[in-house]
């Protein structure tokens, strides 16, 4: 497949790749697993020297971090972007400095395709569509035609939120009596998820379904529902995204009805892309990872191998 000569040369030189990684934050279990995977794969033992920056869920911190990476003169920049937009200026600066940018997990929207070398992550819209379709089937099984749905959205403007919101609406579009009666951001955190769910429960007495756009918000919603005297998973159907181990346990014990998997283990994928870019090899511009759905019917088979 070509490029082998250069790779060997790089190995012989034993030249490490310096890489700056701007991470969203530490808002969720998913994110913590993602950070661990990135740090492990981009380690010295693997031929990397990593500068890691936690943006604490603020894009302005990411802009600063990227500028810092540029002034350090790193070989590659990796970004897990908080939001999709607002990147144009700083990405142009990286391009002018000749530093390739890999985006991972969430995506960036730019007018100029060449500002990002490649992206690897999940198909968030597909996850949302699958969740909607699953709900239609589940309600059919229960003999219910109508459903009042409350959505706990992730960080507004992040591609995970945008995709899951759009996809879910698309997934339920044929179910005329499914109504999204409430929708608000819980910022992908457990605390905010709980707070928003509490306020939903005060405002609406008739919530049949909660769609939490990540597991930590689902955990918060479960606590809020219990405090309000409701049985999560029974009185109210709970749908969630990520499928971290603690959430799979909730599927086992019936408090979450369906989990739409989102894979956080991107470290080795980014390491591979960075090495290829440095060797002048071709990389795939867009790479979606495979994921699955977990319910009580199949969760037992998978829970033990879950590392995060
Ligand atoms: O679902 C959530 C995290 O962007 C896919 O961000 C990621 C999302 C994930 O905080 O738990």
TrEMBL record:
What is the official name of this protein in its record? Answer: ABC transporter substrate-binding protein
Similarity section: Belongs to the bacterial solute-binding protein 2 family.
> What lineage does the source organism belong to?
Bacteria, Bacillati, Bacillota, Clostridia, Lachnospirales
A Pfam match is Peripla_BP_4
Please give the PROSITE patterns that the UniProt record associates with this protein. PROKAR_LIPOPROTEIN
Q: Write out the annotated subcellular location.
A: Cell envelope
- InterPro entries recorded for this chain? Peripla_BP_I, SBP_2_dom
Aminoacyl-tRNA synthetase as a keyword of this entry, yes or no, is no
Q: Where in the numbering of this chain does the Periplasmic binding protein domain appear? A: 19-258
Where this protein primarily resides, as one coarse class? other
Q: Which UniProt keywords apply?
A: Signal
């Amino acid at each position: 497949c070509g490029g082998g000569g250069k790779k060997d040369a790089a190995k012989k030189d034993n030249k490490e790749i310096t890489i700056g990684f701007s991470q969203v934050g530490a808002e969720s279990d998913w994110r913590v697993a993602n950070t661990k995977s990135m740090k492990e794969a981009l380690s010295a033992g693997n031929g990397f020297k990593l500068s890691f920056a936690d943006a604490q869920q603020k894009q302005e911190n990411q802009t600063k971090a990227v500028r810092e990476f540029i002034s350090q003169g790193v070989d590659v920049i990796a970004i897990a972007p908080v939001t999709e937009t607002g990147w144009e200026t700083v990405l142009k600066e990286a391009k002018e400095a000749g530093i390739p940018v890999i985006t991972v997990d969430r995506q960036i929207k730019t007018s100029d395709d060449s500002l990002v070398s490649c992206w690897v992550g999940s198909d968030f819209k597909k996850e949302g569509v699958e969740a909607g379709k699953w709900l239609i089937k589940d309600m059919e099984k229960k003999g219910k035609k109508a459903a009042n749905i409350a959505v706990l959205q992730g960080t507004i403007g992040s591609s995970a939120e945008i995709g899951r919101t759009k996809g879910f609406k698309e997934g339920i579009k044929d179910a005329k009596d499914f109504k999204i009666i409430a929708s608000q951001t819980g910022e992908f955190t457990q605390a905010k998820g709980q707070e928003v769910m509490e306020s939903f429960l005060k405002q609406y007495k008739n919530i049949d379904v909660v769609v939490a756009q990540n597991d930590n918000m689902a955990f918060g919603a479960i606590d809020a529902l219990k405090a309000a005297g409701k049985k999560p998973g029974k009185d109210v159907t709970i749908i969630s995204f990520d499928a971290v181990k603690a959430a799979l346990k909730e599927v086992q014990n019936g408090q979450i009805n369906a989990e739409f998997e989102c894979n956080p283990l991107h470290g080795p994928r980014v390491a591979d892309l960075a090495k290829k870019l440095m060797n002048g090899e071709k990389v795939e511009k867009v790479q979606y990872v495979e994921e699955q759905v977990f319910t009580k019917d199949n969760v037992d088979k998978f829970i033990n191998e879950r590392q995060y």
